[in-house]
Amino acid sequence: MTLEEKLKNLPTAPGVYIHKNADGKIIYVGKAKNLKNRVRSYFQSNRGHDAKTRELVKRIHDLEFIVVDNEVEALVLESNLIKKHKPRFNVLLKDDKQYPHLKMTHEPFPKVVITRKILRDGASYYGPFLPASLARRTLDLINRAFQLRTCDIEIDGKLPRPCLEYHLKRCLAPCVKELCKPDEYAQATSDVKLLLEGKNKELANTLQERMWHFAETQNYELAAKYRDLHKTVLAIAEQQKMAMTADRDVDMFGFYREKKLLALQLFTMREGKVVGRREFFWEDLDAENFDVSEFLGEVLSQYYSTDYVPLEIHVPADFADRETLEQVLSERRGRKVKILDPKRGQKRDMIELVENNAKIAFEQRFRILQPDSQKVLEDLQEILELPYFPERIESFDISNIQGAENVAGIVVFENGKPARAEYRRLIIKTVEGANDFASMNEAVFRRYKRLLNEEKPLPQLIFIDGGKGQISAAAAAMQTLDLEAIPIVGLVKPPKRHNEISHLLRFGYEDSPIYFDASSPMFRFVQQIRDETHKTAIQYHRKRREMRDFTSELTAIPKVGEKRKLKLLRNFGSIERIAKATVEELSPFVGAKTAREIFEHFEKQRKLSISND
Questions:
Q1: Residues 388, 517 share a domain
Q2: What was the pLDDT predicted at 556?
Q3: Which of 10, 23, 443, 471 has the greatest number of CB atoms lying within 10 Å of its CB?
Q4: How many domains does the chain have?
Q5: Name one GO biological process term (predicted).
Q6: Are residue 307 and residue 282 in the same domain, yes or no?
Q7: Beta-strand (E) ranges in 55-188?
């Protein structure tokens, strides 16, 4: 069916429409109360269309549509399709970082784990945690204070004895029926939920009630336990300094824009306290026809398709689908969710504070050409969840042609700057043929065995130019040396573009790649490390190959030994320049007689080449 036939047969029902280009790629996803009227409006007189819409219409070669029952379903479906296909002409929500969440699993005896993926699997997700280290600290607190399990075994209560975690007071041991009853574990789970939801006051009051109950029944051991938990929860509440009078969950959005560039800030408030902040950036907006209403509607529907839904959302301006989105989010939350655009008072003041932060972020992102190295390294530590600040970073790359002249390049960055005196080049000795995995294993092993023997500083982070295979090979070498605590990260190239990095892979988390915003300072820093490493390896490989070619060329000339070969190479640089040199130019380095023989050797080759032509 042609596009014209599809336009004639569109239904008048609500639904989602999908525009495709000549290659069949989805370029725009939209929703409509009336599919027929909305979709056909694109192809009627385009005088009223903005430049972006006119360009979109030029590229539409096909369309699909999905009929739904109401606007709410259309909004949800549109958001899901945009996040899945990332169409070129939709406003896409792109986060500069992938912040971690804490996930409470959906099983009889839940556990809490760190994750960067939010799935519809029945589990409860909390976050995002900013900085990322806060997620690790919170998880450690949960393990120590509330003692939820950390293992992956099936819990049936039939194990004869608990593991070491129980004896370290980091697990209630539900695996042993006599040690932990299901209702006791359920109570601990409920407490953790209150903590993660930011309901510190409610949790503190509950713990205090239990403390007095067990004290009155003379169960002093449990009373002491809840006393300590009560103190811990109060301490957490005290650390959250920024407070508002509203005693509820609120997300506040603000943005700052100049032409095609925009910075968006989100402040997350829980129990009346600002507990986190996120940043989003755009560089390709339609400068002439920017629509605040359309922008906010698309951003919020995408963001809350997976993330935690607060009871209130404050935005700097109203937008067309606000009531529909409120209905969708209320159904997800199970309570009434309000989206407000405050005009005055304390709520408006907070929006202006968020907008001011958005302007600062805009300045730092788009105007400052030389980012602060400390800030870039802190961001790198955060996104990679490194246990230590990456003061020293080392990077490896392997270079060969079909296994010939197999070498490794190693570069070192200290405090964000290249330490070129620390660069090293290795000849791979034990690997035959083009086996990058084995070559990487040898290079990493030899490098850190030598550093250990010489008692020299070790890095806080290692980059490997390659994917899972190279990372695993490097990790195996580090494990042999008992250095597996040093994080290893792979620099992965996108298909068909070998001069860029598409994402990072952390050893042990290979199924959770970290994707970059290509314009971020952190991406440019990692790209600089990768380029330096690649250049170091390639240059050494070329030098080795030239030496091989040079040696083979001069082997046929009598009286040209190893010393004379090296002397010629040092002074002329390549076999091509030696071949073009005169007797007078060669004589100072090998003597007049040998110089004559070398000259005549290449002269014969030139004449032979001419006769063959």
A1: yes
A2: 61
A3: 443
A4: 5
A5: SOS response
A6: yes
A7: 62-67, 101-104, 112-115, 124-126
